[in-house]
Specification:
The chain has 219 residues and is an alpha/beta fold. The protein is built from five helices and 13 strands. It has a single domain, classed as Metallo-beta-lactamase, Chain A (4-Layer Sandwich).
Length: 219
């Protein structure tokens, strides 16, 4: 904390684990930070809930910025990069992946996710559609050109919305403003207003990736 550059922005990061019909869905993968034992922090978090990286069935990615994609891969004992969740299917917008590979540093750290390109576990998403009939996804843009949002529908008509960095905090759904860190700040602002209106009407549970005060909330 004390070593971070003066004037830098402090942002909380929290991937989500969603469990449905005995399957584990990981929503984004964090920064890829390691604890003092050299283990990925996200692995330690899973262990606290009696899970291992092998128990993750699906990794669903909103976009590939470092704070969301840093835990996609990890180096093994031979220093060879491998996918961090070996039994999972990885869902990512194809447009986002191609843009990230072309754009590169500093917006994207290619080494975190380039393994997805030729891996049989990768599932490429288009601009909109459904995953297994109960997850609706849509290329929203806004924060980055091909950012993707996800709406999960449960058996009792529950609605769980993961908006990544287009809807990262509860207070951002309640305040109308344009953020300089967004690729298209005006569009992000408009999307937040849309999500807030629809989410309130349909009683969505929002998962806020950058809000440790209100990580899960509704309007």
């Amino acid at each position: 904390m004390n070593e971070r550059p003066t004037g830098s922005l402090l942002v909380e990061v929290q991937p989500f684990l969603l469990q449905y019909k005995n399957k584990n869905y990981l929503l984004d993968t964090g920064l890829g930070f390691k604890n003092q034992k050299g283990e990925l922090q996200i692995f330690e978090n899973l262990h606290k809930h009696h899970l291992t990286p092998n128990d993750i069935d699906y990794v669903i990615l909103s976009h590939l910025h470092k704070d969301h994609a840093g835990g996609i891969s990890i180096k093994n004992e031979q220093h060879i990069e491998r996918l961090a969740f070996p039994n999972a299917r990885y869902f990512i917008n194809k447009n986002e992946f191609e843009f990230a590979m072309q754009k590169g540093y500093p917006s994207y750290q290619i080494e975190d996710f380039e393994l997805l390109k030729n891996d049989s576990r990768t599932e490429w998403l288009s601009t909109e559609g459904k995953i297994y009939q109960f997850i609706k996804y849509e290329e929203s843009g806004g924060h980055c050109p091909h950012h993707t949002t996800f709406l999960f529908s449960g058996e009792q008509n529950e609605k769980v919305f993961f908006g990544g960095d287009v809807a990262p905090q509860l207070k951002q759904l309640k305040t109308k403003y344009i953020a300089k860190y967004d690729y298209d700040g005006k569009k992000s602002m408009e999307l937040r207003q849309q999500f807030a209106t629809i989410g309130k009407e349909e009683k969505w549970q929002f998962l806020f990736y950058h809000d440790i005060t209100n990580p899960i909330g509704s309007l």
